[in-house]
Amino acid sequence: MGSASQIQLSLDHCGEFHVGSITQESAATASQVLQENHENYHIFFNQSGFHNHIAHHILTLFALGASPSAIQRQYANNTSYQRPHQPVDNDIVAQLQDPEVFTKYLDQERYYHDYLIFFQNEIEKKGYQEVINEYMFKDDDRAKAILVRMYAGFLHPLIHLGFGVEFHQPPIIAEALAQAAAHDAWIGPYLLKTEEAAQSSHRSSKSLVEILDQIRADPKLRNAAHWDDGNKIRDGILARAPDEMIKYASQWTVDEEELDLKTAEMINAAVYFTGGAQHPPKQIKFDFYYMHCVNCSIFFSSFLRAAWIPPVQKARLLRFKGYLDLAMYASRRAPEPLLDEIVEYVPKRRGE
Predict the structure, then answer these.
(1) Per-residue pLDDT tens for 189-235?
(2) How far apart are CA 102 and CA 92, in angstroms?
(3) Per-residue three-class SS string for the chain
(4) What is the mean pLDDT of residues 30-49?
(5) CB–CB of 314/301 below 8 Å?
(6) Its pTM surpasses 0.85
(7) C-beta of residue 342 within 8 angstroms of C-beta of residue 276
């Protein structure tokens, strides 16, 4: 597992889905390049907030049995455009213990490295499990600020956290927490208001697929995102139809007693609208933003099995993921998922 600052992959933790032919040599090479990325590069490769995907790429290659040379080659392909870390300000790192100071530096990418070192130090003292519970799930403003930011950036912080938990790598978890701190929180009011509406309604839950149909049938919500919106959720859905979005999303509920079923439902719905959003006879393609919903869904099996996450927080993590997926679906004009395109798909090559 390594330490709070040292990445060390193990053949005992090769990922939720992995091949059976992973070698120790590949584990060593992947650990080496992930450590270089951790020590040298910012989580955003430009100041527009485009994400550094090296950790995602390398850990996926590792799980799929890539050779050491393939891992090294793909790492080299991705380093040419990365940004170096900003210098650490040790005074700021020390001050981040103060909740007011912690909040002061949120939403600013130039402090990512300071938050990274802060979270590494916290993990070194407390263990990553306690740090996640304290800084994401504790009932205070600081934890709430980090939790909602996990769903920012089209789920990138949560995806990063999932990789860290799945592969048992504390430095990757520190990166995820610091990445969340560097994001803004515009998605937060939507998530929290939808949760509040769901809790106050006392209705039985509709399925995610039923709600997809409702969204598609509502012309105001379906057409709320415009082509020239900089961010189709923030500037479209939540600007022009926020009440409608909350009304529909709040119909999906998650109780602690049904986590397995609701996790499966979320994964199914994400694959359904992502895979089914096709336009025959045009070539099969997958929407770039919908893909994030599928990619993130993989990690909820790891969250589900993490005994150290309280069930009530597992339910909240999953609930927010469903809310985000529904908004993501609406933001692309809610195309009708064509199930036959999935069921009748014929791979071009055997084994796909």
Answers:
(1) 999 999 999 999 878 899 999 999 999 999 999 999 999 999 999 99
(2) 9
(3) CECCCCECCCCCCCCCCCCCCCCHHHHHHHHHHHHHHHHHECCECCCCCCECCHHHHHHHHHHCCCCHHHHHHHHHHHHCCCCECCCCCHHHHHHCCCHHHHHHCCCCHHHHHHHHHHHHHHHHHHCHHHHHHHHHHCCCHHHHHHHHHCCHHHHHHHHHHHHHHHCCCHHHHHHHHHHHHHCCCCCHHHHHHHHHHHHHHCCCCCCHHHHHHHHHHCHHHHCCCCCCCCCHHHHHHHHHCHHHHHHHHCCCCCCHHHHHHHHHHHHHHHHHHHHHCCCCCCCCCCCHHHHHHHHHHCCHHHHHHCCCCCHHHHHHHHHHHHHHHHHHHHHCCCCCCCHHHHHCCCCCCCCC
(4) 96
(5) no
(6) yes
(7) yes
Q: What are 38's two structure tokens?
A: 């951790």
pLDDT at 352 over 70: no
